[in-house]
Specification:
Elements lengths: L22 H29 L5 H10 L1 H29 L4 H25 L1 H4 L4 H36 L4 H23 L13 H12 L6 H12 L12
Helix pairs in contact: 1-3, 1-8, 2-6, 3-4, 4-6, 6-7, 7-8
InterPro entries: DUF4386 (IPR025495)
Keywords: Membrane, Transmembrane, Transmembrane helix
Protein name: DUF4386 domain-containing protein
Length: about 250
């Protein structure tokens, strides 16, 4: 990721639209998000979900002991998800940097922060296979994983809200994508704060508003590969009567 030079102000950045194709960052972000979906589904709803029985430590201990390798494979998939999250953060920064570099960078940092929290949550799961025969402690470790992950969702929610704002203002994406991403962000925000304010109540709003994330994947892998941002941003500025470069800077 590149940063602003001392001579550049936040106000000047939009007047310097990055000219070029979004093909590479869109392909990287879309592919990584698609892979994340697969690994997340297997990691969370596969071994972790099927081998852990809430409220039944004895059965959990037996099931994990009988399928320890399978459980560990689920943890490995979740670690891969963290790696892919870092890749997505960098790629989405490149996709939206031409819209507002500062906001795009902030969105990337929030996703990276979420990834770090999620990794801490995954570490809790590593305790489960070690606690063979200790069902109650296994369940406590899984509960710690869920609790830390839920809190991390607040950071992910902010990331989605910022990306939704960028998509809405971009000009190269339909505004509906920004709206859907914003709704998804609000859903994760409700779940994250719900886990803090009402830990005994599972809200689960995000499972009903995730369409924005799915739509983003399709846009990146279909439309994003054919999008060039320079001409689009310049046309928007001309229509708005904004300068295409800072005053006093000659054309190249």
């Amino acid at each position: 990721m590149s940063v602003l030079t001392p001579s550049e102000s936040a106000r000047q950045v939009p007047a310097h639209p990055a000219s070029g194709s979004l093909r590479r960052p869109s392909l990287i972000a879309g592919s990584a998000l698609l892979l994340m979906t697969v690994f997340s589904i297997y990691g969370v709803f596969g071994p972790v979900e099927t081998l852990v029985t809430a409220g039944d430590p004895s059965r959990t201990a037996v099931d994990v002991a009988a399928s320890e390798t399978l459980f560990r494979s689920g943890i490995a998939c979740l670690i891969i998800v963290v790696i892919l999250d870092v890749i997505v953060a960098a790629a989405l920064f490149e996709v939206f940097a031409s819209v507002n570099r500062a906001v795009s960078m902030t969105a990337a940092w929030f996703r990276l922060a979420y990834s770090a929290v999620f990794l801490v949550a995954i570490v809790q799961l590593l305790e489960v296979p070690v606690l063979l025969g200790k069902g109650e402690q296994m369940l406590l470790a899984v509960e710690s994983f869920n609790r830390i992950w839920d809190i991390g969702l607040v950071l992910f929610a902010v990331h989605l809200l910022l990306v939704g704002y960028l998509a809405f203002r971009s000009g190269f994406m339909a505004k509906i994508f920004g709206i859907l991403l914003g709704i998804a962000g609000l859903g994760y925000l409700a779940d994250g704060f719900g886990a803090v304010l009402a830990p005994d109540l599972t809200i689960g709003v995000a499972r009903f508003v995730f369409i924005g994330e799915v739509a983003l994947i399709f846009w990146l892998l279909i439309k994003g590969l054919r999008t060039t941002v320079g001409p689009i941003m310049k046309e928007q500025q001309l229509l708005a009567g904004a300068p295409t470069r800072p005053a006093g800077v000659p054309d190249a």
